[in-house]
Q: What sequence folds into this?
């Protein structure tokens, strides 16, 4: 199913129709943060802890594909080989580059496949830098934002624009120098955040994922957040927002495909005229929309 | 103008119409790479070198905005204060989060503003991780991909999916340990790349941007690439692709705005039904498109 999703198979509408009644149960945990903070290692530890509770766990690693690597990288799988023989764990890297509608269409569909296949929890790992990736991460039921000491100064972390989407902050590699300072910095940032009294206040959990330290704390925080979300009705609100984003992205991808099919020649001509300054891009877009 | 662009002002179509005849001259250099490789420092050095040639230079730093930081960060401006009093240098950070159509709409418009204002060269700095950011970077006339030793292993860099978009590779912080190894690794990757004999073969330039080392080499590589692109007709092809992407993004943003205005209630109802598994997202998208 996920291969079909990656390749934007024409069969997807039919497949998604069949899957729809079996969806809506899985808890989706978004795991995001800058490259190198230990997302894959943390995912592995989380899988281990969730397996100890006898949950069926899926992991979806969303990477921009690269012709150099042929898409998903072996490295991720190697790191997770501990779970390779466990039938109740499914780990998958997904390349979405070139997918019509990109991450916005492909990721929720893949989650839907995991969900319908009966996984209790799906961990979705995305690089937490980049507009689309951040948007994908924030559609998860629970967003873990990973940081690590020594990954560049605080300004660099803030620059990534990801601090505001974390439901739970994880300071991984917390045995390294600078971990305390990073926790303090995060605490200050959270305190300064624009948050109402009844809002969830993101906890900061310190972990050493490769050594499995702090993972139980992390799981406890995830449980607390989940309970808070369900009790406050926000879990449902986020789900609806996710579905809405998904529907909107598919609708836009359909429309974009229509530009390409029916209007390709005129779109190219318009693009040429825009590149020469003969027409402005708004007037050109107006013509494209009128032509639909 | 750029503030209006950030805020998606209703006046933009009119403004862009006025600007159109004055666009198409500026050379756009995309400067991209993972956080912490020294993009801002390199931009500063490039500005210095281009100023020495008496060019008017614009710098556009595209950052996902953050409520914590109030959008663009002071840090970038501080780093570039060297050029603060130079009337022929304009440096601007742009926040695009929340902008309808996001980076895909806002960035080309901002470049258009720089272009019409008569800047010879515009350096656009984006975090080179993330689907949208990579797409923005690759629309530049010339794409510099910055890497630095010690920023995580090769796998992490490849994961970012950015290696294939570099016209010129820059190994910054090349006085650090591991620089030689990184150059070798890149050379191997470039050799393995799927490239025809008449294609441009990306050179690797070693720099120490904070110390201004290697910047003349970099500028020479930029000049060579530019000459190659113009002579081969590829400069024009890329420009048209950029215009095409811009028109398409504006058209899609218009259509998305129409969903929101005319179909908001029905879109919300459909999203609820999808979140409950009562309807699949394709069927829902079909209804949205049919409702337009």
A:
């Amino acid at each position: 199913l996920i291969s079909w999703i990656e390749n934007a198979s024409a069969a997807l509408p039919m497949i998604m129709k069949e899957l729809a009644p079996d969806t809506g149960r899985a808890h989706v945990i978004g795991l995001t943060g800058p490259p190198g903070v230990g997302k894959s290692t943390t995912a592995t530890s989380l899988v281990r802890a969730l397996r100890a509770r006898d949950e069926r766990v899926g992991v979806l690693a969303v990477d921009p594909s690269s012709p150099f690597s042929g898409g998903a990288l072996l490295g991720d799988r190697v790191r997770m080989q501990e779970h390779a023989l466990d039938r109740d764990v499914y780990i998958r890297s997904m390349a979405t580059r070139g997918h019509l509608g990109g991450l916005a269409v492909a990721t929720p569909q893949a989650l839907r496949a995991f969900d319908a296949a009966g996984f209790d929890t799906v961990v979705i790992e995305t690089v937490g830098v980049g507009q689309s990736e951040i948007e994908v991460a924030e559609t998860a039921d629970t967003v873990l934002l990973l940081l690590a000491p020594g990954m560049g100064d605080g300004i660099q972390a803030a620059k990534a624009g990801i601090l505001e989407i974390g439901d739970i902050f994880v300071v991984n590699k917390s045995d390294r120098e600078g971990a305390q300072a990073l926790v303090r910095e995060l605490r200050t940032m959270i305190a300064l955040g624009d948050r109402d009294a009844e809002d969830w206040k993101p906890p900061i959990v310190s972990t050493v994922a490769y050594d499995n330290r702090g993972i139980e704390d992390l799981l406890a925080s995830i449980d607390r957040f989940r309970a808070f979300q369900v009790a406050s009705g926000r879990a449902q609100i986020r789900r609806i927002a996710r579905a809405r984003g998904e529907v909107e992205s598919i609708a836009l991808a359909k429309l974009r495909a229509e530009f390409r099919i029916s209007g390709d020649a005129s779109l190219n001509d318009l693009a040429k005229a825009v590149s020469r300054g003969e027409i402005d891009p708004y007037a050109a877009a107006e013509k494209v929309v009128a032509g639909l």
